[in-house]
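[Q] Does anyone have a clean structure-token version of this?
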Amino acid sequence: MRKTSQTIDRKNRIMKITILLLVLLFSFLGSNYRQLYSAWTIRSETKRLESLAVKTAKEFQNPSLVEDHFDESLSPVFWEFSVINGAGKASNESAWHAAEMTVDHGLTIHHFTDPDFEHENADLMQVPAADQYNNVTLIGGSGFRPSPTRDIVLKFTSKAGEPFYGSAGVIVQPVGTLQQDGEFAQPFDMFGFAVLGKESALDGIRGSLCYLALNWVPVQVDAVDVDAQSRHTYEIRLHWISRKRWSGTVKVDGMVQCEIPLPAFGPVEVQVWSDNYLLISQPRRWWEIAPAMDLGFQNGGEKEFQLGTIRISEESR
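[A] Here you go.
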């Protein structure tokens, strides 16, 4: 009887310890589900891009240099299409809902107060976008890819207005990422330059930044030491390391601001955008493996993002 009782006690202790460990495990997973999902997303998207890169032919012919000076209209040679999101719909006109773009010796993207903002849907999963999302996007300069002997160089001038909210910037992404109807045709992989309003932060960084994101998830974010409210000349350079790996560099007025390794994207296109996203980086708590980020929208009123001459070309290494 005594042995039986000891056996039962031992089994009960083992069961209690097992239950406690399972509770701790599920608590850990529940507290870190966003961070774990982000890590899984980055890993799986990196593998997908590397797999595509291995299958891509080594021989590749880049297009000739293309540029737009924004004299009186958008260059049809550089730009393929533009999209304005607002009230849950996408328009290919130059103005829609609470945003517009104008061209007069430069491109200016304007945002205005959204009178229906408080009554609009903020669902991030809505297609093509949440009702509260007001965004202007231009897609162009497509078909370029670095090689062992050639870098891809994107140059432009830009200036953010004052006051400024949401985000805006210039990036490169795989060709065909965004469609003319405003929907994404493939994972959103990006590298380039962005400006955030003072209410927003990405990985704790505000203002000007350069960053790499894979399938929407930030991989690396670096601060850029520049006053975005003044006009500057920017350069985004893609450099071949191997068939699977590139490096991306951002320069401002000739000074290197960041250099980030990235998986090979294949042929890229340029995206210029300005929106009303509100990015809030949550501080890391002691039981979390990494900080988290909340995403929302702002109805900030008047806002401008200006772009001067933009050009993309290959350049000998």
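[Q] Thanks! Anything notable?
[A] The domain at 32-316 is CATH 2.60.120.200 (Jelly Rolls).
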